[in-house]
Amino acid sequence: xxxxxxxxxLKAIVTDYVSSKEPVGSKSLVxxxxxxxxxxxxxxxxxxxxxxxxxxxPHTSAGRIPTDKGYRLFVDRLATVKxxxxxxxxxxxxxxxxAIDLDDVMGRTVRLLAQVTSQVAIVQYPAAPAAQIRHVExxxxxxxxxxxxxxxxxxxxxxxxxxxxHVSDDQIAQLRALLNSHLIGxxxxxxxxxxxxxxxxxxxxxxxxxxxxxxxxxxxxxxxxSDRVVxxxxxxxxxxxxxxxxxxxxxxxxxxxxxxxxRLLGEAASSVDxxxxxxxxxxxxxxTLQATSLVASSYGTVSDGRATLGIVGxxxxxxxxxxxxVRAVARYVGRFLAEG
Amino acid sequence: xxxxxxxxxLKAIVTDYVSSKEPVGSKSLVxxxxxxxxxxxxxxxxxxxxxxxxxxxPHTSAGRIPTDKGYRLFVDRLATVKxxxxxxxxxxxxxxxxAIDLDDVMGRTVRLLAQVTSQVAIVQYPAAPAAQIRHVExxxxxxxxxxxxxxxxxxxxxxxxxxxxHVSDDQIAQLRALLNSHLIGxxxxxxxxxxxxxxxxxxxxxxxxxxxxxxxxxxxxxxxxSDRVVxxxxxxxxxxxxxxxxxxxxxxxxxxxxxxxxRLLGEAASSVDxxxxxxxxxxxxxxTLQATSLVASSYGTVSDGRATLGIVGxxxxxxxxxxxxVRAVARYVGRFLAEG
DNA sequence: ACCTGGCACTCACATCGTGCGAGTGCCAGC
DNA sequence: GCTGGCACTCGCACGATGTGAGTGCCAGGT
Lengths: 340, 340
Prior knowledge:
The structure is a homodimer.
Chain A: H1 4-20, H2 26-32, H3 39-51, E1 55-56, E2 65-66, H4 68-78, H5 86-94, H6 102-117, E3 120-124, E4 133-142, E5 145-152, E6 157-163, H7 169-183, H8 188-200, H9 207-222, E7 229-232, H10 244-256, H11 258-269, E8 276-280, E9 292-301, E10 305-314, H12 319-339
Antiparallel strand pairs in A: 1-2, 3-7, 3-10, 4-5, 5-6, 8-9, 9-10
Helix pairs in contact in A: 1-3, 1-4, 2-3, 5-12, 6-12, 8-9
The structure holds a DNA duplex.
């Protein structure tokens, strides 16, 4: 079937097409790579590769371009990891220095990833499911509104405002103390039961405000930080101004839909720890994204928070470099989250 | 100079050009509007309008298109406010129902604004400068890291993590109590002095952790919630797939730079309360955005939080509708923030 | 003084043919 | 099984042409 030379030819086609973005013919292929055979031989090989579905010609008498299947083979068997440039190494090893808080870390990460890959970057907030509750704060804002803040040991701070009837500062203080005494040190998973019990035998005076506050807290506990996603590098799409309808628009639309992004990242990350996952063209679950590829990796650890990050770009993409960058960034962010 | 008919002609040109996006000629102008004169007369008027700089021809023997100056005159003197459609009214009056917290309000607002205007929407977080500090929370995360949370009476919650040497829970509790006793009820503007004094005569045991915490708090007080901005409706740029370089790319780039967005909104909003500001083409402070217009309005009140929202689109835009939508959304959000 | 119809003129743009060149498939020969 | 040669295919860039929308100007009418 596919002997070594044919694989070399495929590799050369992918490499050339990615850098030139034009169909590649037999002659230039032999010239640009050190293939020690004639163009005619390469043509025969290409005919076989085409028959097997790894490459196609856009029209008769044009060069060949890789199919999704061709890219897949390239990524799986042919790509040699391209080492990062010194500049990239430096950028990656310093971009998180001085980060202020988690938002800042996420923001810096997405910017870096977009910069080194020149693609659109997506980073999911890390989820630290085993965290303990560290503090519940309850603050009266106006006479009939209050703010609930939930702080966990992993540094997550979540807030909600809600309406309360007849709030007195005393009652708020009482409720705050009560909540904290019952919740501090508890894992969120266990907190739901605890809160339900608390709601049941609540002091009658506290009940009017306690009930809605507990409802909000339950809701906050049920929600997950990892359904937050940041996106960056959208201007990188400008390079594809030509194929607007096929490439740019679907990506723009997907980027506004967090649900879509999360599903994309979720499916991509369901693989081995720290490995880089590549989804090429039609392998994507969304029809509109079939002209694009996704390169993703999970990062972090379960205890420090774990999530996925990656980039979206055209199927014609420099996979070796991109995969190296994504892996490097994922590792670095994971290490940073662990060390603090 | 410009008699009524010439103004009518300008108005007709703007209207037609906005809807057709093609240069408009004298004949079709007379046909589509009820101008009771001949094309030749209109041509003479157009010659005058061109001489005065309100319209130009893209090339000889083509129709005319409005200049920025022409749009400006149109917006200032000719545009009649277009009433919102029932569907828009309905959307605007219900889109905030069930909002969970401020993030949610901002998110819903930006989506709504993008939807009703079919442009890219920008919403700035409201700033309530006169707020009091309601609570300072200090939480140890690991042995050498802590989380500082600052809560104000306007419902702002800001967080930072920082590294601390040798943290004991006792010291943290002590410092937390100390900070709260000095800061609760104080306006942020006065808090800086108070903190400086506190840092000066800090108990010796607390000093190693107190000093960095106070430094972080000072930094948090100096920062302003209103430097946060949310953006939505980016896929609406897809309609301008043609003029990528002139319109789409600069906007995409500006959207990634919060600083740019804030300056844009800031300059736009420096006007009267609740009035809709329009910046057309070259009136924008950024050269790359000279093919785009900004329609913005401030919203909210000083006490409840005040900021700016708006949309960015091509200079060829339906100003009456857009201005009506922006104004309606700004008013509604303002009212919502006031009522809670 | 102002409007109007007529007329010659100007270009952008679409259409069509043409030639070129990159690339192919196939075949005979080494 | 590789290679050089050769005829063939087509996309595309290029130049010529015609068409039509739109203009400016002018002379005549109200």
